[in-house]
Specification:
By secondary structure, the chain is mainly alpha-helical. The chain has 6 helices and no strands. Helices cover 70% and strands 0% of the residues.
């Protein structure tokens, strides 16, 4: 049942990404082009996503188990620290340069060399982070 619910969640997420235009690099770059032909529609998508997530998160905070009886694991750390800021900046810069968010990049990687290159760079960045964290915590 957990695998089925994970599959269903992934399909709904993927459809949302595709329907919202977040898998379209031109749409993403239009959203990020504040000084030019700015397209605010992805901002509306983000606001809608925050609104849609509000009630489920409120419910999750009040319960110790999920609907499938798995332990509820919500983020406990709320501090804005240096690694969070640097990671957010790198994410935003990469998103702006490529015009591709990581989730749609995985979907676009089939048949698009630019998306494949983006996914390879994203995985390399994740590996570099893991190595740096291992070195830092020694």
């Amino acid at each position: 049942m957990r695998a089925l619910s994970a599959l269903l969640a992934g399909v709904v997420f993927g459809l949302g990404i595709l329907l919202s235009g977040m898998a379209n690099p031109a749409k993403v770059l239009g959203f990020l082009d504040l000084a030019g032909a700015w397209d605010p529609s992805l901002g509306l998508v983000m606001v809608g996503a925050i609104g849609a997530a509000r009630l489920p998160f409120r419910w999750a905070r009040r319960h110790s188990l999920s609907l499938l009886r798995a332990p509820m694991r919500l983020p406990q750390v709320r501090a804005i620290d240096r690694p969070l800021v640097i990671g957010s900046l790198l994410f935003g810069i990469g998103w702006g340069l490529a015009g591709i968010c990581p989730a749609p990049a995985l979907a676009l990687a089939v048949g698009h060399w630019q998306a494949v290159l983006f996914v390879v760079a994203m995985l390399a960045g994740m590996r570099l982070f893991a190595l740096m964290e291992a070195w830092r915590t020694r």
